[in-house]
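SEVERITY: medium
COMPONENT: batch folding queue
REPORTER: lab tech (J.R.)

DESCRIPTION
The queue accepted two submissions in a row. Attaching both inputs and their returned structure tokens so the on-call engineer can compare them side by side.

ATTACHMENT 1
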Amino acid sequence: MKLWRSRLILFGPTVLVACCLGCGGNDGGGSTSQGDPALVGTWSGTEVDLPQYTWTFVLGAVTMDVQSSSGEGYKASYTTDTSVDPKHITGTINECPLADLVGKSWNGIYVIEGTGATIASNIPGDTTFPTAFTPGSPHQTRVFTLTKQ
């Protein structure tokens, strides 16, 4: 299991995911010490730039386990801020084969529509949130389209 691709050196999120996963909320109006209940469950799908790999995001109330068919993956704790649009997710990597990533945080955005979700996350250590669901620079954003299982 690996978290970084040598090709782009990007983080998967999200969600996890990115992500993984305290929250960068503004006034705390939608910030929670737990994740958004709508995210809890198992999600699977693909990364926009690399659709040949399948991703599985298993989200609990405050933890997530993210795995890819390419071998990337990690475990993290996360919180959400549902008071902003798009919603924010902030995670901290708890377990990862790359020891230098353990303890690093990442920020992402997400939207849920029916049984589908789109998640975009920046690399661990980047304190900014993505501003759009667009992969690439300047923050090495990764974007995932997922379906709830």
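ATTACHMENT 2
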Amino acid sequence: MPQLVVIVALMVVLPVVSILAEYLLSAGVASLVALVGKWFVFWAVGWRLLLAGAWQIGNPAYTAQTIFRIADPSAHRLVAEIGFGNVAIGTLAVLSIFNAAWVIPAAIAGLLFYALAGAKHVFNKDRTGPENLAMISDIFIAVVLAAYLATAWIEAALRS
């Protein structure tokens, strides 16, 4: 249950609250597309992957056993390396809050990660409950990021 609460907070609640707060504080002047990109990248890509990566590095047995059902301790090294990648992408996304030019690259990296991970989960017919949660949240955020990127690129093309 705590995992579900954290995922819902990072993937839905915090981005939506942040978007609404900034939009209202800007008196409706801020671009909703830019805000969706900014806050979903910051929370759903940045903090979710940063926290997941830190957990995978610090406690690789949990991911190996709970998500992948691998009891072999030699898998822990591989899970830790997955954590390094998550920390790298997550850090880029968190830091994008300070540099708007990093939002689209972080969104692309996040989209690729979540879409590929979600697809891999879909094709695993013997999923665990935690893996189902990962699959649903991965696909959800991949769809949000794809919609954001498509809309941002269309807006950019119309401006030029």
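NOTES FROM REPORTER
Residues 2-159 form one domain.
No errors were logged for either attachment.
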